[in-house]
Amino acid sequence: MSNLNEREARRAWFEATCVDLHERFGPLQDGEPASYIPELAAVDPDRFAIAAMTTDGEGIAVGDVDQPFTIQSISKLLLYGLALETHGRDTVLERVGVAPTGEPFNAIVLDDEANRAPNPMVNAGAIAITDLVVGADVEERIETVRSMYEGYLGRKPEIDRDVWASERDTGNRNRAIAYLMLSRGIIDDRVEETLDLYFGQCSVLVTTRDLAVIAATISNHGVHPITGEQVVPARVTRDMLTVALTCGMYDYAGEWAFSVGIPAKSGVGGGILGMLPGVGGVATFSPRLDEIGNSVRGLRVFEELSREFEMHMFDPDRPWRRGT
Ligand code: GLN
Question: Which of 108, 202, 228, 232 could form a disulfide with 222 if both were Cys (CB 3.0 to 4.6 A apart)?
């Protein structure tokens, strides 16, 4: 009984803290929404949401949690999981390594020694992973991606077709990366199709509530906290969590691991998804980004939550261990 009360009290404390952080960081105007395409520059920069879900399926939602936005780079994490599940580790590791680059996410950098992309969380790696998505043409392959999302969300998400078209129109740097990988034999020769699919999977529409469910599922070793379905194999979530911790926050990953200390992935749409293995997931949405491409308010929320609740993975005192 007292355990139950304690759990309830902790949940109330967490919720109150999220409400407080939402109020406190609401006025923060630092940073700019991504502006490399007009659709992202046009989003309402004041939107702000915090959502969380435990591995038991208990949710917390504060602010604009039902506002759809494009998932952008957060999708890289999920596609990595899909590739590992579909093709196995050896095939994936042959094309994409697991080392952080310390470079911006769109750097034209490969792992020359092993002749592969550096890691799946930067564009080069994500394009190589996208190449592995199964299907006869782009429409079939985007359905493969949407079906993967369906396991997490209980619905096939919409794709923002305008963002997709703009990504395609402006994505020449990604084209350069892809053709470099083609010349090295890292990806297949259906390059334009794979690039199109890459731009499409950046344009998947999600809400902050959705991200919290996804984060909770991965944190729960792939078992959906509400449906109980094994959405992605447990051994695959181990690899997803590892690269999220080492490479998920662009070239801020080291500082993030040090200060926040939980595996996470961010996207230039303004989302951040954080995962506490065995405990639950936290997600934030706020479109204003710092120079590295991470959401400014999102970073602040995660820093504060990690400090207040001793969420850092290696914190010896964290009160969030399962069964306490
Ligand atoms: N569409 C962006 C790109 O490919 C996604 C980047 C991101 O969220 N970091 O450059």
Answer: 232
